Amino acid sequence: MHLAYPAVLAALLFCTGLYGVLARRNAILVLMSVELMLNAVNLNLVAFDVWLSRAAEETLHSGQALTLFTIAIAAAEIGIGLAIVLAVHRNRGTADIDKLRDTAEGHESHPADGPDGSDGASGSGVSSGSEGSDSDAPMAGQADRAGKAEATA
Prior knowledge:
Blueprint: H1 4-23, H2 27-56, H3 62-92, H4 97-105, H5 133-136, H6 142-152
Helix pairs in contact: 1-2, 2-3
């Protein structure tokens, strides 16, 4: 068998996995796409190992040994990855990567926000929240404090 056949198949698998990583929003589908990419690498390792062992008459089979390590790492990665995705899904209620990234960056909308994204305060200096809320919530974010300072100014 020529080396081109498994190399082309591995390239197709890798491109499919790359497309899945870049285009998908669901975390589980992204993990499956990463697995496709790792399987493409495994296919290349075994194909080149067979091709080089025939050419050099060596019996080391280092490509197949690296493939076993890659399979073990992929199994550990998918186990830990699925555990993280399930824990995040339980806490946040979604596995959508864009929504999780927005909540991590602090772009989530607050319930006190108005429909246009403003905090509901007019320019007359009236704040929408209570004046002593900083002492009630010592862990308030810097954006919340800045918004309250603008509302009271």
